[in-house]
Design brief:
208 residues, 32% helix, alpha+beta, elongated, single chain
Length: 208
C-alpha cells in the first residue's frame, strides 16, 4: 500500500502544478511503448511515475513514444525488494539507451536513504548530487525532490515530495483545503476586529 500511496502523492501534487503551466502530462504505473518498429507487443516498460513537458494534457491510457514524438522528460521508479535490482540496472539502461529519458530517479519508500538521481549527459547517466538542503533538483521540471517527514493517507513516514526551488511544497488536496480554511478564518478575525474598532468610534458596521 505504501508503494501506491507514494506514487499517488507524487501525482496528486504535480497535477495542479502542470495545470497552471498548461503544457505537461504526468502518469503513473502506465505502459510506455518505445518499439522502433512501432509495435505494442515489444519494448515497453511501466514506470511508477513519469512526467513530460510541452505536450497536451489530454488523458491517455499509455505513452506511445512514436505517436507522441518524444519520451518522458523524467521518470521515477519506487523500489521494492523484488524490483530494486532491476530498477537500478536493467531499467536504468533502457531509460538511458533506448528511451533517452533526460532524468531518472529512484526512491525506496521503505528505506528513505536509498535514493538516487541521474541526468543524461552525452548519452550517459551522470549522478545528480543533492544540493545544500539535501534536495535532488530536476533541471527538466525546475522542481526539487525532497524527503519529507509527515502524514499522508494516515501513514506517518518519510515521503518523497515535490518542492519549488524557492522551498515551497507542492500541496496535497488536503493541505490546500487546510490553507483555504486558515485564510478564511484569518479574514473572519480581521473583519471582527474592524467591526469592533468601528463600534468604538461610534459607527455601526451594518450601516456601512
Amino acid at each position: 500500500a505504501r508503494h501506491k500511496h507514494q506514487m499517488d502523492l507524487l501525482l496528486e501534487t504535480i497535477y495542479p502544478w502542470l495545470e497552471k503551466r498548461q503544457n505537461g502530462y504526468a502518469g503513473g504505473n502506465m505502459f510506455i511503448y518505445f518499439s522502433a518498429s512501432q509495435l505494442k507487443n515489444e519494448d515497453f516498460k511501466g514506470p511508477d511515475f513519469y512526467c513530460t513537458l510541452d505536450v497536451s494534457q489530454e488523458e491517455r491510457k499509455s505513452w506511445v513514444v512514436w505517436e507522441e514524438g518524444k519520451s518522458p522528460d523524467l521518470i521515477i521508479e519506487l523500489l521494492s525488494e523484488s524490483t530494486a535490482q532491476m530498477d537500478k540496472t536493467e531499467k536504468k539502461l533502457v531509460y538511458q539507451n533506448r528511451l533517452r529519458v533526460p532524468e531518472y530517479f529512484w526512491y525506496n519508500p521503505w528505506q528513505p536513504e536509498d535514493i538516487a538521481g541521474f541526468s543524461l549527459l552525452n548519452g550517459v547517466y551522470q549522478p545528480i548530487k543533492p544540493d545544500a538542503q539535501d534536495r535532488y533538483i530536476s533541471q527538466q521540471l525546475q522542481l526539487a525532490l525532497i524527503r519529507w517527514q509527515g502524514i499522508y493517507c494516515g501513514i506517518e513516514t518519510i515521503w518523497l515530495r515535490w518542492q519549488t526551488l524557492e522551498g515551497e511544497l507542492l500541496p496535497t488536496q488536503r493541505e490546500l483545503k487546510i490553507q483555504a480554511e486558515a485564510k478564511a478564518n484569518q479574514a473572519e478575525v480581521k473583519a471582527q476586529k474592524l467591526a469592533a474598532k468601528l463600534r468604538e468610534m461610534g459607527i455601526n458596521p451594518d450601516d456601512i
